Amino acid sequence: xxxxxxxxxxxxxxxxxxxxxxxxxxxxxxxxxxxxxxxxxxxxxxxxxxxxxxxxxxxxxxxxxxxxxxxxxxxxxxxxxxxxxxxxxxxxxxxxxxxxxxxxxxxxxxxxxxxxxxxxxxxxxxxxxxxxxxxxxxxxxxxxxxxxxxxxxxxxxxxxxxxxxxxxxxxxxxxxxxxxxxxxxxxxxxxxxxxxxxxxxxxxxxxxxxxxxxxxxxxxxxxxxxxxxxxxxxxxxxxxxxxxxxxxxxxxxxxxxxxxxxxxxxxxxxxxxxxxxxxxxxxxxxxxxxxxxxxxxxxxxxxxxxxxxxxxxxxxxxxxxxxxxxxxxxxxxxxxxxxxxxxxxxxxxxxxxxxxxxxxxxxxxxxxxxxxxxxxxxxxxxxxxxxxxxxxxxxxxxxxxxxxxxxxxxxxx
Length: 413
What we know:
This protein has one domain (2-407). Helix content is 71%, strand content 0%. It contains 17 helices and no strands. The longest helix has 35 residues, at 47-81.
């Protein structure tokens, strides 16, 4: 089969790998700078409020990067589950994205430390414990929402994600060396059970990590909402990475216009799916009109957050829906990469909208600046971790039995 593989450059550009230490330093500086900006954004001069604003900002930027890594893991597993051949030439990039999840588990440690070693409500109000003036509905959840069980659940969630990511990547690398097609059959066999574990971990992880920042509120669709955003952002990252790699002389023969077109179609589908989930959640609470359910939306309809909500309707759904609907657009790599960058930015705004609006936190220039700097820091850390993880690893699973079909993939003109 090796003779059927075109002579293509399938390693990461050396200058990308050389930037990793600089990116790590820039990321750390940006996160620290964000701390100062968020402190002033609190507008109260109180240290506790400043730390709270920064902690929520850190969490939203952290979830931004983690979300598309989780989306990549699901993509890898579902491609094996359905025995897809078209994606064989791009699946290794998704495996490498998922392979950064262990690093993200380390970057969650500051959040976990605030929960374990303090009784402060900086991120999670339930962390103050019983008898501290919490609403009765929150007090009733403290057997579930407490530092010990929260920590155990977080370890389980990341354990599932890390195991699946490492196993799929290591088996794929092993196949590169041996060419054993039985490895593909094994990956297909376990895709179903691992997807079920992944879905449970993602759903309950969304409840714990994000939804419990407002513990009086509850939504059974919240995990699906995060899943929709994760898959949308994953395809955006894939489009951008493939475009940048080809601009640097990589994967020019391995990834063709049909692959970009299909990734763009998936991205379009998740634009619609996100809009459907977001509207469904709002509609249920609107006609139910129960105080403990509508309070979450009340915080997002005051102090300037209502304009962010309107921005999301336009920029997270309407504009990308209309802008990427055309087949002509989907088959233009540079144009789709531009749309993908726009979608990623709005996905970050969406996560900020989910996490930051709490009682007494208004939208301000300093708040947006602090969050934006924190986002830049997290993106720098992601880029560094990704390039370090890739190293000299091939960007294509060169001995995957489906690869010849992926290379010959052609749908139309």
